[in-house]
Amino acid sequence: MSRADHMDVAAYALGVLDAQDAERFEEHLATCWACAAELETMVPVVGMLAGIDGEAMAALEQTHTDPALLDRTLVAVRRDRRRTRVRQLLATAAAVVVFGGLSGVAAGFLGDDAPPTPQAAPTPSVPTAAPSSGPADPNQPGLGGDKEIEGDQHNATDAGTGVKTTMWLAKKEYGTQISVQLSRLPGPRTCRLLVVRKNSTTEVVGTWSVPGSGYGTNQNQLSLLLSASTSAPLGDIQKVQVQSVDVNGVASPLVTVADL
């Protein structure tokens, strides 16, 4: 080995020794506890210097003749890395400013032509309670003022249950729209609206719960107004029936509109 063995610790740690010198230093390291201890302290330094360029590596190789050069090199590396971090932060901040400016310009450029943000359309709740006060005609059921409901009107009152209903059936491209007003309906109970076709097939088109005070009763004077639809054409419907369903799922009729 052309240099003093004890001066090759840093060069060996950095991997700048050629194969022959590295082999000879390893032989020396096996018998020199001082170099072994120094090499152990060099491990963190090697990690810090992993990202420096080739010229810096060459300068580090000269530390075998000038031990102070290693300290100066480390200081320079730390300073350079601090500058790099500052440049990165400034570049990031500039990018944010530019992006914000472009966003503002784009918004101003689009102006009123910018497409509006889609908004979810409100979904009507069914059923709803309708005030008992109705149109001017006292013979018509209360529908909440002058509100008109589309379709042919059908009135019915069940002699056994006392439940009263007015139904409006309107022909639609998709089938039939059914609007229902109920009163004299006691609770609590679960109800459903059943469509019976002329071919004897049936379809449940709506279910709801009735509170203990009921609808259109002494405890709750508000009648119940709800709507439903069916794929059955209006001409194919034989009757529409409001049913009460018990806890076992057994249904019993409350009121039926059959004059269709």
TrEMBL record:
Biased composition (Pro residues): 115-125
Transmembrane segments: 89-110
Stretches with biased composition (Low complexity): 126-136
InterPro entries for this protein: Anti_sigma_zinc_sf, Znf_put
Domain Putative zinc-finger: residue ranges: 10-35
One protein family per Pfam: zf-HC2
Keyword field: Membrane, Metal-binding, Transcription, Transcription regulation, Transmembrane, Transmembrane helix, Zinc, Zinc-finger
Coiled coil: none
Ranges of compositional bias, category Basic and acidic residues: 145-155
Region entry Disordered, spans: 113-162
One MF term in the entry's GO annotations: zinc ion binding
Protein name from the UniProt record: Putative zinc-finger
Native source organism of the sequence: Micromonospora humi
